[in-house]
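User: Show me a protein chain along with its predicted structure.
Assistant: Here is one chain, sequence first, then structure tokens.
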Amino acid sequence: MLEAIFAPRSVAVVGASPDPAKLGHRILKNILDAGYSGRIFPIHPRATQILNLPAYPSVEQVPEPIDLAVVVVPAAVTLEVAEACGKRGVRGLVVISAGFKEIGPEGRVLEERLLEITRRYNMRMIGPNCLGVIDTTTRLNASFAALYPHAGQIAFMSQSGALCTAILDWSRVQGIGFSRFVSLGNKADVDEVTLLQAWGCDKVHNRVILAYLEGIGNGDEFVAVARQVTKHIPVIAIKSGATQAGARAASSHTGALAGAEHAYEAAFDQCGVLRARSMQELFDFALAFAYQPLIPGDRLAIVTNAGGPGIIATDAAVHCGLRLAELAPATIAALRAALPSAASVYNPIDIIGDARADRYRVALRAALDDPNVDAVLVLFTPQAGSEPEETARVIVELSAGSPKPVATSFMGAASIGEALRTLNDHKIPNYPFPERAVAALGAMVAQRRWVDRPPGEYVHFDVDRERVRALFARVRSEGRVELGELEARQVIEAYGMRLPRSLLAQSPEEAAEIAAHLGFPVVMKISSPDILHKSDIGGVKLGIRDPDEARDAYELIEYRARKYSREARIWGVLVQEQVRKGREVLVGVSRDPQFGPLIAFGLSGIYVEALKDVAFRLAPVSRQEAAEQVRSIRAFPILRGVRGEPPADIATAEEIILRVAQLVTDFPEIVEMDINPLVVYNQGEGAIVLDARIILRG
């Protein structure tokens, strides 16, 4: 798909320069220095030779086919260059030049024209305004980076060119290698989704894909592609800028709780992308995946020569989704026979401070051979008599060919330099502190669970779409975007969700008759498309127990509504059965600009407002995702039942999430929605929607 960019047979550098101070000179020299084996054509209007290569005044003058053109000319000239490349049959562009949409409206127009040219000639383009691309598998360095990376099996994409240069500099010292390294720039054409598709097809060279993202243009497409790729190649992302400060203002509970951060969290979770919280964590995770086989389970054995680091690792394991392996009796017996009496033969296996390499050999071999162990973490602290280099060689020897991942934490610095080089040269990931090693293994466990997870089951309920479509059309025809309560009830009913029995009264006497018919006590509330916050104006009365109270409540509610707004349309007063108490939850929707409808679930009341204990998923939602959503809130034990209380009807709560997800998928004009509260009764007794609010796109 992107062979012309990453594996071109020939490269033209448009803007190549004989002046070493110029960017065009640097890029041409980088291509030569990296050892690229294809044909290279410097393009310069006057020079006849640059860096001992024949130069040409334009791409039209090059006598051979050109696969890739690296463009480093002023922005105003790029359109002319792109047009010439298209006519010449160039298949790929890397536009280094800046001065496009990043500078404002004028630059945006220029970028749109550039993109139109590339599409017209069926060229793929990275950039503009980028550092360039590096592919160590083809030894192509079409960038102006000062350093060429070590070869490796980590593919890295970034929306920040400056971050790229810093990582390249750092990785040379750390000995970390890359297969592909791309600065995306403005992403006019090739974006994170394009690279994910392309790199996801090459498991041989890309054992792990890393992404530094500042934004995702097409959220739906990203989720769909990532869901496929992550099943066979781990994808780890660090997302900057996803904070509440960047979230749009919203009037509903759900809109106020949801923000860009929640949308990205839900998206990554539902498509298997692992989220790194820092650049350090990004590369900590990457090394584990690039160097070691994927963990088969979550049972961890720890081998250590010091008690403190072993305890730190044990605590970290609990927080990172790992379990301490329960060693097999045969393993314990073998360790007891071979280790000093002061050693601990349980897990963590503490071989005590005077341990030399031979003692590490005994403990590591026993742990790797134990069928109850899925991964081993080896901890080393330099002490009198320690053998760091010899111990590293033992780890390399025993881990070779093992289907179980091995990670190490050689703590210290001055005395372990050679040992660290040995570990890195033989692809044993080492971390300066135990908790970082455990976190990387925890990321492996998360990836294993994703890979083993069965495909989601998406349910489609039998609903009355036509009823909702006609209702929305009428609301819009009246110039409104927010549904009145009666209208929202019709939508809820059309999608198969249970509501309290209720009827609309248009006089005090009718209110009394309806209340008697429904059975006391009842709730009464104003019904008006122009009064949306009924409680704020005193438009709701609870616990009405006889006909006289119903008449009085009608008159009071109507009076308060007229006082609030003389122009408000009053449809009457809704008389509703007062339902018995249950556990109250919220199910809501906000529409994220990148990812679409975002479904919220949490306990209602103070739990939403004060604790923000809410879980989010993107629609459509599978059965498994709905179940995970309900169980991921901190207050889930309240639904499960505490202190002898029976469990709530969790299955019905999950079904309501699925029905709401189907509703907002069927009707993309719904921008916000709240079911608050949804009263969930005991297991097997269902749930009932007490109040609903729906806002349409204006």
